[in-house]
Amino acid sequence: MTLLRGEDQVPVGETVSDKYGDFAIVMCTAPSGAVTTSPSAWRLRATADDGTLLFSSDQPFDLAPGASVYVEVRLTGEDSDD
């Protein structure tokens, strides 16, 4: 899972989901406490181990200091025992 910022889609955080698909990306605010509130600022992308794109958020979302964003990503396809 990769968190992307800005129109140029700069990666600012990455993590790997656990066997249940759960993940967390924790972001620290700038020293001034300011985080951009642009509605197009933040997107989420999921890729497989081989780099195949599995999910990219259609709608950007806002992040604000002290806020939490919960995203449910549903992937379709064959089930795996891994």
Round the mean pLDDT to the nearest integer and report it.
75
Sheet with the most strands?
Answer: 4 strands, antiparallel
Q: Output the number of helix runs.
A: 0
The SSE order reads: EEEE
Oligomer: single chain
Portion of residues in beta strands equals: 15-25%
Molecular shape: globular
Runs with pLDDT <50, length 5+? none
- Give the strand order, joined by hyphens, for the main sheet: 2-1-3-4
Number of extended strands? 4
Provide the gyration radius in Å: 14 Å
Q: Structural class, judged by helices and strands?
A: mainly beta
Helix proportion: under 10%
N/C terminus separation = 18 Å
Describe the structure.
- Strand 3 (42-47) and strand 4 (53-56) form a beta hairpin.
- The protein has a 4-stranded antiparallel beta sheet, with no helix packed on it.
- It is built from no helices and 4 strands.
- The mean pLDDT is 75.
- The chain is globular and about 35 Å long.
- The two termini are 18 Å apart.
- With 82 residues, the protein is mainly β.
Give a brief rundown of this model:
With 82 residues, the chain is mainly β. It has strands at residues 2-5, 10-14, 42-47, 53-56. Strands 2-1-3-4 form a 4-stranded antiparallel beta sheet, with no helix packed on it.
